[in-house]
Structure formats: C-alpha cells, structure tokens
Amino acid sequence: MSRFGPAVTPPQVWAVEDTALQIVWGDLPAGSITARGGGAEAEIEHEGGPGAIDLEGLQPDTEVVIDLRTDGGSIPLIARTLPAPPGELLGRFATISDLHLGAMRWGAFKSMTDQSGDPIPHPFRCASAAIVEARRWGADLLVVKGDVAQHETDRDFEEFGRLVDRFPDLPMLLIPGNHDVDGRGGSIPLTVGERELRFTRNVDHIDLPGIRIAVADTTIAGHGRGSLVRAEDRLLQTVAESDRSVYIGLHHQLQTTRIPRYWPAGIGGTEAARFLGRLRQLSTPVTISSGHTHRNRSRLEGDILVTEVASTKDWPCVWAGYAVHEGGIRQVVRRIAAPGAIGWAEYSRGAVGGLWGLWSPGPIEQRCLSHAWARTANLVDR
C-alpha cells in the first residue's frame, strides 16, 4: 500500500506528444530513476512516492519501447508518439480549469483533506505548478476556463488574484465557471489581482500565429448548468471574422443529449447541437474545449474536435497544452509533476470509493491527439 492511500497509479505512460512523452507513477522507492527508449534517455533523482519523468527527443508517429529502471529493477512500458499535424509549428498555448481556490475538502462526502502539512493549500500549489510547467513547455498564452474560486467570495477571488500576479508577463484569457457565480457571499469582480486580469462576461479573443483563441462565458448565475444563449451570436461572429483557425474555450461542456447522462450538467444537447450546426456552416476550422466535468474526453462532431479537460485541483491534476501547426492542432493533457501536486493527486484519486480514479482520466487517445484542419483553403496567412 502506498503512503498516499490504497489507490496507486502503476508506472505508465500518461501523455504522448510527437517527440516526447510523460511517464508517471503512484509509488516508487527513492533513488535514481532512468527512462530509456526510442534512442532517448532521461534520469532523475527521486525522493520516493509518486513522481513523473519526461522522455524527449523521440520520433513522431513511432512505437517506443521504454525501459523504466529504478534501484529496485526494470519496468517495461510501451507507447506510440503522435503524428505531427501538417505544416510548420507556429506556436503553443495552454489551458487550465477548475482551480477551486478556497476549497479545503474533496470527495463524495467532502471527507478528504490534505495531509501533507504544506502551509500552501493544495488548490493553490497545484494551479501554480501547472502554470509553471505550462510555461516551461513553451506556452505563450494561458486560457483559464472557469471555476477559479470555490465560491463567489472576495476571499477566494483575492487568492486567485495572488496566483495570477505571480505570472505578470504571461498573457491570459479568463472566463468564469458556475462556482464563480454561485452567489455564496459576494459578487464576481470585474478584474482580479494587481495585474487587473479581466473576467470575460461575454466573448473575447486573442490572435496568435495560425490561430484565434476565443472564449465565451456560459454561466447562469446561481446554477450549475450552462448556456450559450447570451454569447452564441457574438461567438459565431468572432469565428466567422477570423482569417485563421479558431480554438474556443468554454467552461461548460457541450452535452450530446438533452438530459445529462453524467454529472455535472453542462450545456443541454438541444442547444449544443444547434450551436454546432451553425458553427459547421462557417468555413473556419474550429476546435472546442471545456472544463467543468473534471474529466478528460474527446470526440469529433463532423470535422470539429470537441474535448473536455480535467481539473488542476483534484485527480488527476492536469493542464492541457496545444501546439498549433499550419494544418492542424495537437492537444496534450499532462499530469502536474511537482511533488506537492502529484502527491495530493494520488491521494484524491481515491474519491467515491476509488471510482473517481477510474472515471476521470479517460483513455490516453482522448487526452493526447493530433487533429488536422479539414478546412484550410479559406484561410489567409498573415
């Protein structure tokens, strides 16, 4: 049994990219850990318990046989790197969601608490580590997809302000989630932090090389479910006017059915289908990603890629990176590797009698994928 609880992640390849992969584990002994495979090698000194190691310099779209070696022996692993999307790499951005700053408990009965002794609350240290790792990965922009606060209180928003002020030179787009407008003792501010990062309350966007990053507020004050009613027309106009592909960041997921088949409810299936239908009438290639569900999933709606990315705060504690190419986009969902985050993640995996550890991660092919734009002829390069 791990010192972080009975639910333990076995050594596994968690994330794959075109030339790199991330290996994680829930409990390995202290000492030197080496990963070899695909002509590449990486080594770390491990303090014991949960951890992660990156293997870089691999070939795209190639099967990699990995030897993960510890002081206790060798562990064989196998993975396949992603194909790179068509064309030149133009840039990278990252997303985080469901930070829930101010939350102190987790699980179905809110009985799980941080036992690490760290004076920094786990939601803050996980979110901070995620941003540090995303910047190290090469992100030029951060999209924060809502539920930054556990409740709509001044205290929780001030904590988020302290977080974003740590990264004054990183451009950010910010939308609220349902927890940010739950009416539990305050009101959502116009801006947060000394950098005065603004909450988008309708639609906003930033253009990067090869892609327009658009975000829309889908919240309904006092409700957990979401809606695009207020923002839909302006969001579609933002897509239609783009001379490049578009990434749309939402808080609530687009349901495939009118009645939700899993918790929590997002944007109802009828409304989501109407929006997707209108989006498909445009000539712009689009991908959409949301938070809210604290799980990792993806699907294709025609030629539109739709993904959900899990929380920074609880198992599996992740952030998402996007590499933009001339002819497509690559998504990678990475575990937060910092010791103060990955230890909490392994503990929080045991929620709902251990079922959360199985439900939330999603299969690797739905976390990490390359998506080629189907409609590029109508775009004009700047």
What does this structure look like?
By secondary structure, the protein is an alpha+beta fold. Helix content is 18%, strand content 34%. The chain contains seven helices and 23 strands. The N terminus and C terminus are likely disordered. Strands 12-11-8-21-22-23 form a six-stranded mixed beta sheet. Strands 15-16-17-18-20-19 form a six-stranded mixed beta sheet, covered by helices on one side.
The span between the termini is: 56 Å
**Arithmetic mean pLDDT:** 94
Approximate shape: globular
Strand content: 25-35%
Count of extended strands: 23
- In percent, how helical is the residue content? 10-25%
The ordered H/E elements are EEEEEEEEEEHEHEEEEEHEHEEEEEHHHE
Rg (CA only): 20 Å
Strand order of the largest sheet: 12-11-8-21-22-23
Outline the low-pLDDT stretches.
1-6, 377-382
Largest sheet: 6 strands, mixed
- Determine the structural class based on helices, strands and strand pairing: alpha+beta
Number of continuous helical runs: 7
Task: Please provide a brief summary of the model.
The protein is α+β, with helices and mostly antiparallel strands. The protein has helices spanning 122-137, 154-164, 232-240, 269-280, 339-348, 355-359, 364-367, and strands at residues 12-16, 20-28, 31-37, 40-46, 49-56, 63-70, 73-80, 89-96, 105-106, 112-113, 142-145, 172-175, 191-192, 197-198, 203-208, 211-216, 245-249, 286-290, 297-301, 304-308, 318-325, 328-335, 369-372.
